[in-house]
Every structure is written in C-alpha cells, then in structure tokens.
Design a protein that fits this description.
This protein is α/β, with parallel strands linked by helices. The chain has 2 domains: 168 residues, Rossmann fold; 61 residues, Orthogonal Bundle (Histone, subunit A). It is 54% helix and 10% strand. The protein contains 14 helices and 6 strands. It has a 6-stranded parallel sheet with strand order 3-2-4-1-5-6, with helices on both faces. β2, α2 and β3 form a beta-alpha-beta unit. α5 packs across α8, α6 crosses α8 and α10 packs across α13. Its cofactor is Mg(2+). Its EC number is 2.5.1.75. This is tRNA dimethylallyltransferase. Keywords: ATP-binding, Magnesium, Nucleotide-binding, Transferase, tRNA processing. Belongs to the IPP transferase family.
Length: 306
C-alpha cells in the first residue's frame, strides 16, 4: 500500500510559515495540523500570531486555540493527539500539512519522543530551590556546562525546559541532546520537510515589524487579561512575560516592547540553529514567486513517489 505524505512546514518565527501551509493545503485540497505549542491556547491569539480568521477559513486547521491556558498539556499528550488526528486525516487524504516552529513538537510527530525517564522528585526539588534562590540564570549556567548543544537551541527563558533537561542528564549521565536525537520509532507515513529562508537582517526586520503590528492589534489588552495567569507555563513566553514586567512597574512600555523584539529575535536565532543541523529541509526563498511554488510542488510530488 502506498504510504501517505506529511508535508512539514518549518522555520523561524515571523518567516511566513502559516501562509505557505495554507497555500499547500489549498493546492493539495487537504487540512493543516499545527505543531506550534503557543497557538494551542485560545486566550493568546495576538501574541502568538495565530492564523487569522481569513486564513482559518481558507483551510481547516487543527490544534489552534483548542486549549485554555489553565489546562495542563504535555508534549507527550500532544504526540498522542496529533498522531490520532493524522490517522483520521489520512483516511481521507493522501497528503496532510504540519506547520509550526516548536521544534520538539514537530520532532514528536515525525519521529516520536524518546523513552526518557520520569522526573526525579529529589532532583526537581533541588533544581526548584536553585531556581527560587539564584534565579533562572543559574539553571542556564548549569545546563550550558552539562550540554552546550541543547543549551544552544532550548528556550532558555522557560525554566521548566531547563529543569527537565538537567534532571534527565543527572539521572542518566548522558547529554540530553544525545538522548532526544535518537528516534524511538519510525512512522508509517513519509515526511517531506519544507522551509522558508531569508537573510537574517530581513528576518529580524520582519520580526520587529510583526511585534509593532501585534501591539496595534491589542497585545497589551490581551496580556492584561492574562496577567492573573502569569505564573502558568503557557504565559512564561515571549510577548507576555515582558508586558507583565511593565504591568508590575519594573519596565516602561517602550522598553518592554523593545525586549519583546529582542527576545523574539533570539528565539528565531535558536530555531535557525536547530534547523541548520537538518539536511532534509527543502527551502523556498522569502517572498517566493508562483514559479518557486510550482517548483516546490514538483519537488514534493517527486519525493512522494520515492
């Protein structure tokens, strides 16, 4: 039986993945599965640049605004839910689109998570104390020393990611980056990875402009409505944590917005580092032409026949 095809659209924040995913979904008359872990939450539409109503109307999307920030949702749960959804979609379609810049969430779908140990209570307690006494910088320092490769791609502002990685390293005496690099199981579908590339300065300019647009669309009001949830993991993210500091009187608004831009650029740099290590991504230029898109379709059709 012919294998089904999953087209995975990847790339840094602000590069235009949503538009390309919609164009591909329309071409193949199929549906889109999101692997953007920030867009799962319905209360965070503006700050996560969720697809617009128009984009959602152009092609059916899954895992967009399907959760509340108050709900706990792990990457393991997402892997299970996404594979179940793909199984359903492959009953109807030969090709499905996956899109998102959350690197580990894409990996969970296309390769599977590795059989990592459960959290060790003692380690977690010790690390939580370090976090509370010495701040997130100390956790960053520990991880950088133990596993510089994972440190170069992880979201270093997400203390839970740091805690998890350090805990696993302490338990196994192996680098976290090595343990997540080994695929647990193969999938019963082909994965064709597509990216968009742009000169770094152009990408950073797009990110800066996008933050300005988010502010115009009401990011400040959205963040204010979520201030009571700022202790939750979902809100410990770029675009919100900076504005919470403004609300607390630590920063003025202009500085908070400049920090959102800076931290978004840093996140994009980490994403680029991650994707640069892959040799299976076919790239389109930013602002691709119809000719470029036609060439991409030819490439996808060729890969699908392999």
């Amino acid at each position: 039986m012919k294998k089904k095809n999953l087209i995975s659209v990847v790339g840094p924040t602000g590069i235009g993945k949503t538009r390309l995913a919609v164009d591909l979904a329309k071409h193949f008359d199929t549906e889109i599965v999101s692997c953007d872990s920030r867009q799962f939450f319905k209360e965070m539409k503006i700050g996560t640049a969720s697809p617009s109503e128009e984009e959602l109307a152009e092609a059916p999307h899954h895992f967009i605004g399907n959760l509340s920030v108050e709900e706990y949702y792990s990457i393991g749960q997402y892997e299970e839910d996404a594979l179940k959804k793909l199984h359903e979609l492959f009953e109807k379609y030969d090709t499905v689109i996956l899109v998102g810049g959350s690197m580990m969430y894409e990996k969970a779908v296309i390769e599977g998570l590795n059989d990592l140990p459960e959290a060790d209570e003692e380690n977690q307690k010790k690390l939580q104390e370090i976090f509370e006494d010495e701040g997130i910088e100390k956790l960053q320092e520990i991880l950088k020393e133990l596993d510089p490769e994972y440190f170069s791609v992880v979201d270093i502002h997400n203390h839970r990611r740091l805690l998890r990685a350090i805990d696993v390293i302490w338990q196994t005496n192996k680098k976290y980056s090595e343990q997540i690099a080994v695929s647990q199981e193969s999938r019963d579908f082909n994965t064709i990875r597509i990216g968009i590339e742009a000169p770094r300065e152009e990408l950073y300019d797009r990110i800066n402009r996008r933050v300005d647009v988010m502010m115009e669309k009401g990011l400040l009001k959205e963040a204010k409505s979520l201030e009571k949830f700022k202790h939750l993991t979902a809100l410990n993210t770029v675009g919100y944590s900076e504005l919470f500091k403004y609300f607390d009187g630590e920063w003025d608004l202009d500085f908070a917005v400049s920090e959102i831009k800076k931290n978004s650029r840093r996140y994009a740099k980490r994403q680029l580092t991650w994707y640069r290590k892959a040799d299976d991504i076919h790239y389109l230029p930013l602002g691709y032409s119809q000719e470029d898109f036609n060439g991409l379709i030819g490439y996808i059709n060729g890969e699908a026949l392999k």
